[in-house]
Each structure stands twice: as C-alpha cells, then as structure tokens.
Amino acid sequence: MEVIISKTYEEMSALAAREIANLLNTKPNAVLGLATGSTPLGLYKELVRLHKEEGLDFSQVTTFNLDEYVGLSHSHDQSYHYFMTENLFKHINIPVQNIHVPSGTALNHLAFCQWYESRIKECGGIDLQVLGIGSDGHIAFNEPGSSLGSRTRIKTLAKQTIEDNARFFSRPEDVPIYAITMGVGTIMEARKLIMLANKKNKAKAVALSIEGPVSCQITASALQLHPDAIAFVDEAAASELSMRDYYLWIQKNKPGAPRPQ
Ligand code: PGA
Q1: Confidence grade of residue 254 (pLDDT, cut at 50, 70, 90)
Q2: What's the domain count of the chain?
C-alpha cells in the first residue's frame, strides 16, 4: 500500500482530491465510491472548489456511497443521504439519477442489498473508492470480525462506533445500532482505493491496518491485499507507523517526483 503523509489536513485533502480530478480528467464517466464522516469533509470541499473554480465536471459521473444508518430517512439531518447532499452533491453538477446511497428505510433489506450490488456491476464497477477508517480499524461499517469477503448487508454497529458517533446525535439512545454497508469484498473490487485518516485518535488503527497482519479484526488491513491502494494520512494519524521515515523517503524519491537541483 502506498502511504502519503501530509503536514496538514488541508494538504491531505487536496492530494486526495487530485487523485479524483486526475481520474475524471481521463475518464469523465468514472464511477466513484464515496464515504461519509468528518474525515472526507476537506476532500469534498476541495472537489467543490475544483468544480466551481476549475470546471471539474461531474455531469457523467456515477457515485455509490458506502453505507447508511438503518431507520434514518433521506431528510434526517444525521442520515448519510443528507450529509452527501449538503457537503457535496448540491454543490456540483452530478445528475441526481447517477447518485446511489444505500436506503436506510428499505422494507426488504436483503433485496435492497442484492440490488445495490447488482447496480454497482451494471454501472461497470467502482473505479475509485474513498474510505475513512474508524478508531476500531473499520472501513465503511465493517466492524471488527466482519468477513473480509463480505458483501453489502445489514451490520450491527460496534459499541465503540456507536460511542464515536454519539457526538452527532442529541441523545445517545438516538444513535442507530444498525447500518447497511458495502462489504469488505465489495470494496476490494473497486479498481483503486484511497483511504484517508487524520488526527491522533486514528494513529493506532492506521498503523495496524498498514503494518499489522491482515485480519478481520482490523478490516482496513484488507487494503494490503489490494493492488492499487493509497493511504493519505496527516502527521498525527501517521505518528504510530513504525516505517514512517521510509514512507517519507519514498514520497521524496519516487521515480518521477520533482528532484531538488
Ligand atoms: P470519521 O469516521 O471520519 O468521522 O472519523 C470514519 C469512519 O468511521 O469510517
């Protein structure tokens, strides 16, 4: 896995946005996998800026979001539908029919999950999937113990995740305990994965996912098996990486990187 360490959150977000912009410039009808949470907010802000100021075009782009809370409707201000609309979709020129976010209110969850998987395939598969990482090492809502071959399904959230997310709800008992989430197997089929992590509270999960053994206890560690995965991390999130200096050395000396004269 390639590891890119940035000094600041803004720099990390801009580098990740550049990956997406490069993809859209070569494949304007790319299929993007998107994530919610506080981590990708800077990335979405930068994509909106690139759209408004540099004409980055989303008119042929299709998106699939990783997950959604079960029980929250599109208009609930903590739903991931709402998050995506407010932070990205309403600011760019993506056609609404090209947007896919799992439904938290589907009556038949099983049928919905199967449809979501088949819809991804119908659209040609995901070209680039954006990922955050939970403090327990999860990607999407694939909590510790999730099969590394799992597909889109209903998942019971871990206590740690419910506690991490409680800050967004007025009462702890309002935090949903189920989510529909793409599986690790679904995510691993994307042609490129970019995982973002900032802040100290992610440092341990980042180190375990990049340098630890591949394990269902840290589902982000599955990225080690992906042929094209990049971790974009800030200094704080990188602080427990034992090979931090080597990653920085590679960043500086990569073939094609600008060399000091
Ligand atoms: P966060 O969540 O970006 O809000 O830290 C990440 C995740 O749980 O995947």
Answers
A1: confident
A2: 1
